[in-house]
Amino acid sequence: MTKKLNETETQIVIIYLCQMLGQPTISQIKKVIDEKMGISLNEIQITNALNSAKKRGILSVNHVQDSETNELQDAYSMKDVRFSNPPEIAHIKNVLPRLLEDEGSKEMFELMEGEHNEGKKKGGRLPDIRDYVRWEVSFTNILPVLGGQPFTNGGDVKATNKHRRIGKLIWIPGNLWLRASIRNKLRMFNITESKALYLNISDCFLEPKQKLYQEICPSPAQQKGGQGTGLASFEALEPNEIFVFELSFPTTGGISEDIMKKILESNLHIGAKSKDYGLLKLKKITPLVI
Length: 290
Prior knowledge:
alpha+beta, Alpha-Beta Plaits, 2 domains, five-stranded antiparallel beta sheet, 8 helices
């Protein structure tokens, strides 16, 4: 039976999913709710909850480019970076004290704890999804990696879509770009895409070895033979840069180490227009202690 939520419960779930997914769009949030959570929310309810949380200063909205249509979409993330990673219920409890005054909140947190620790049984039995491993994984890019942040300040390349920056470092969002690429590969190994929710991937902060340049790409209308001369410009990282991420994932009830290694060795793409750019080649996997 599908559970219906009140306004407060809806906000709790939506903010929790924004934290878990990193920087999801409304359609991505709706897909997880429909496939994973067993609750009833339509896109209008989701949008209202996102806007309400944004007004409270809990969420921020950015514009991301769809890799297939090249159109801009709103994507939501935690405004305070302290609550962005890792995705833990405890963070939400701290950041939303006013919401917790609602009587239904306790039930909703129990629902989400059950989802986050899927299959946890009473009486001390282990959850079905467990035995996490942690790796440091390094890649080099065979194709240029394009920035997807529209009109971002900074950098010396006159592109309308740039890479995020922290000082002189290029910010590569692992939980957004790399996790999406891994998720797209899971069905090849008969693993549902929802298992990607249990992945946690650190961001990569890269000091480029080479000067960034401007890549000009045709608009979707041009590619399909439409009218007009629409072009989009992207700030691009040259090939042969090194990207290092920390990756953790469950091996029981999740993804085996052997399959994860095969996925990391396959054609993973990151960045804007990732169907045509951002191809990564695995260099090294180093096991880490959790």
